[in-house]
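User: Please predict the structure of the protein below. I'd like the answer in structure-token form so I can feed it into my own downstream comparison script.

Assistant: Understood. Taking the following sequence of 80 residues as input:
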Amino acid sequence: MYPPLFVVQANPSSLDKVEDLVDLIHLNESSVLHVLRQRYGSSLIHTFAGCHLIVLNPLKPLSSYVDRVSGRGVASVRVV
């Protein structure tokens, strides 16, 4: 016999790409991972969790970002 499964509530699909995770109705691990996966798939690599910023590595050059930042007088940009 298998142990009982722990079922968590899901958020409505309107919150699939929410910019701030604090806005989720049901805040749990699976909901956070789902939102991050949906945003990453749409090239939305910046997500907030309250006052904290989560940035997912897009594994591709960020030339447009570097161009915009370097145009503001920043001497160098280090993308880690």
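That's the full token string. Strands lie at 46-49, 52-55.
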